[in-house]
């Protein structure tokens, strides 16, 4: 079992203990005023409510912690089970909150009834009534001082619980930020290697482009030189033919042998050009 699962199990035990304590406080509040000591129990009621409110605050904190831990469980089934438990805890919390409210209403009714009985007894006169009034005044003063100290301690504890919740929220935020930074770092490393490979491919493509340009330029120059050579040869043959024709027309070459020799020379020249091509 991993650390998260162990933390969830410990949280369940803590929840059960806190619920048991809260139920005891609710029962004490509900029984408040039933013993006939209306004034004393009325002074004790804020202390009991303070303890019950502390339990409710602890339960709210545990709901938040369980909701946070449920998202970190290793398997999807455990995550769904944890989220379902969160919903169950929310319903149980609402029932306990409603039970505390009903217990306070019952306690107020009991205290009101007990106070009415005490008032009737005190107004009855006699030595017993005088002694009871003195005892009530002494107990009321002591109870008031104790309640003041208890309330101060309760407020201090509530502030500590709030600070713990705030610290837990801050730690959760820090953990989430750390995971995001780690993910960003891994993505950056992947992109950096990809950029390096891309840079190498671009360098290779640039070199290949330069080589292709050089090959094309050299090929074009060779082709142009070949064309010029062929054209120059063709122009020379045509010039020779014009000269022979002009000489025949002018009568400079009267015999047929000369004409045959010229034609033969022309054919030889044409064959030489074809061989060169």
Automatic annotation (TrEMBL):
Does the record bear Transport in its keywords? yes
Where in the numbering of this chain does the Sec20 C-terminal domain appear?
Answer: 144-235
Q: Tell me the protein family, please.
A: Belongs to the SEC20 family.
Cellular localization per UniProt: Endoplasmic reticulum membrane
Transmembrane portions of the chain: 214-232
Named from the GO MF annotations, one term is: SNAP receptor activity
Q: Which InterPro entries match?
A: Sec20 (IPR005606), Sec20_C (IPR056173)
| Pfam families in alphabetical order | Sec20
One GO cellular component term:
endoplasmic reticulum membrane
Q: Can you cite a GO biological process for this protein?
A: retrograde vesicle-mediated transport, Golgi to endoplasmic reticulum
Record membrane topology:
Single-pass type IV membrane protein
Q: Which domain of life is it from?
A: Eukaryota
Please indicate if the UniProt record lists Mitochondrion as a keyword.
Answer: no
- Tell me what this protein is called: Vesicle transport protein SEC20
The alphabetized UniProt keywords are: Coiled coil, Endoplasmic reticulum, ER-Golgi transport, Membrane, Transmembrane, Transmembrane helix, Transport
Its lineage opens with: Eukaryota, Viridiplantae, Streptophyta, Embryophyta, Tracheophyta
């Amino acid at each position: 079992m991993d650390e998260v699962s162990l933390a969830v199990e410990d949280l369940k035990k803590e929840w059960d203990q806190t619920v048991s304590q809260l139920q005891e406080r609710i029962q004490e509040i509900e029984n408040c005023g039933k013993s006939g000591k209306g004034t004393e129990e009325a002074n004790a009621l804020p202390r009991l409510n303070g303890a019950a409110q502390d339990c409710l605050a602890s339960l709210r904190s545990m709901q938040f912690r369980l909701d946070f831990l449920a998202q970190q469980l290793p398997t999807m089934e455990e995550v769904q089970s944890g989220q379902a438990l969160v919903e169950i805890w929310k319903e149980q919390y609402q029932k306990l909150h409603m039970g505390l409210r009903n217990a306070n209403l019952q306690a107020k009714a009991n205290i009101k009834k007990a106070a009415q009985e005490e008032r009737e007894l005190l107004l009855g006169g006699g030595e017993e009534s005088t002694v009871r009034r003195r005892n009530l005044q002494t107990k009321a003063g002591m109870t008031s001082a104790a309640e003041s100290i208890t309330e101060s301690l309760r407020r201090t504890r509530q502030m500590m619980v709030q600070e713990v919740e705030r610290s837990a929220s801050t730690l959760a935020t820090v953990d989430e930020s750390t995971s995001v930074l780690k993910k960003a770092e891994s993505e950056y490393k992947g992109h950096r290697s990809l950029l390096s490979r891309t840079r190498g491919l671009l360098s290779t493509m640039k070199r290949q482009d330069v080589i292709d340009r050089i090959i094309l330029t050299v090929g074009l120059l060779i082709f142009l030189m070949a064309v010029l050579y062929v054209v120059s040869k063709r122009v020379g043959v045509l010039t020779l033919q014009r000269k022979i024709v002009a000489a025949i027309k002018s009568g400079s070459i009267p015999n047929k042998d000369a004409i045959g020799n010229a034609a033969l020379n022309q054919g030889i020249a044409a064959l030489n050009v074809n061989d060169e091509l």
